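Quick one from the shared queue. A colleague (R.T.) flagged RNA-directed DNA polymerase from mobile element jockey as missing a structural entry in our internal table.

Convert sequence to structure tokens.
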Amino acid sequence: MFSDEFYQQEGVPQGSVLSVTLFIIKINDIIKQLPPYVHGSLYVDDFQIHCAGTDMSFVVRQIQTAIARISKWADKNGFVFSVNKTKCMHFCRRRGLHPDPEILINGNVIPVVSEEKFLGVLLDRKLTFRPHVSNLKKKCNKSLDLLKVLSSKSWGAGYDTLLKIYRALVLSKLDYCSIVYGSAAKTVLQSLDSVHHQGLRLISGAFRTSPVQSLYVMTGELPLQLRREKQCIKYYFKVKSNRRHPMYDRILNPILGHIGIVGNEKADIAVKEARRITWPYVPLPDIDGILRSEVSRSWQEIWNTQVNNKLHYIQPSVGGFKPCNFNRNINVKLVRLHIGHTYFAHRYLLHSEPAPICQTCNANFTVRHILSECEIFNNCRIKWFGKAHPQLHELLGDPPHFNLFSFVAEIGFMKVI
């Protein structure tokens, strides 16, 4: 059944597949109403304008002129600005007292706020991104709650399934606008590392004392800092590969403060000459392959420094753990044996107790000592592995030794991994 035909004088047909497209076409010209010193950005119905300067009265006049123009355009084209949703932010690094701008829209003073969200990014006056990172951490922790339910050590979901859920629910949030908030201080960004580490522990089932570098290698997930750098470089080349992108080119205006200063004038000339260089066009897919290779190389260099890491001996190359065709319980135990941190050998770190000592060998109880060194288990090793002292990479390699868990079960170590 169809509704009756009628002429729509204004607005867009609700529910139509063309509604958003028609709206975008209609509102797109609003950017053209801005005066030269005022710039703006528009995403569907999210619109912001901004003006930079050292003279507040000049900035206010320019913004007020821009508001008058776009208000006149809106009245003419059937648009209405929401006064309640309109906010003003004054970005400034000055520490002393300085007045906030007083800007009007439809006769109402626009409230000046210290924080405001635009396209999912919580902006603050100093652009520290501390509020955004704090809010992002809370949202990611809520998403991790689902992963906690599904990642039981005994009956939980499979390794690959948990990894896909983590990437969809948590990493997608961490990646969004990371090229923007990635400029925050390291101390601010480090608060997100705990989210990343907790997610990787839930996926792999690693013991709580496991080194974070081992978690990265086992799951095949980059450290967040490397991940943000990769996203930033990828965005740069995405812009450079599209000559029609608004960010592709910038017009260099002379800096008045440089005029008359010989060294600064030479620097300006050098910048302008560099901009005349025509770089060869490289397709984005080709850049992606090179970028992945370079990021992987950087990650490998970090992993090469972890010479004392227990996992490094077994897995000297970065990558990801390849789970065997076992249930969740066995795969968790296999991960812990790989990393070298188990409940039996490392619970003392959580309870402030002395490290467990082998009474036979007078050596610390480690995964290496139990699987390949302790003399008391020689007969069991010969029975299951054919030798008294097999190498650790022989037992935990890819794939692990067929009789590994038969040996572990016989020596009574299965329940305390």
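Strands lie at 39-43, 46-50, 104-105, 108-109, 115-118, 121-124.
The radius of gyration is 30 Å.
Added to the table.
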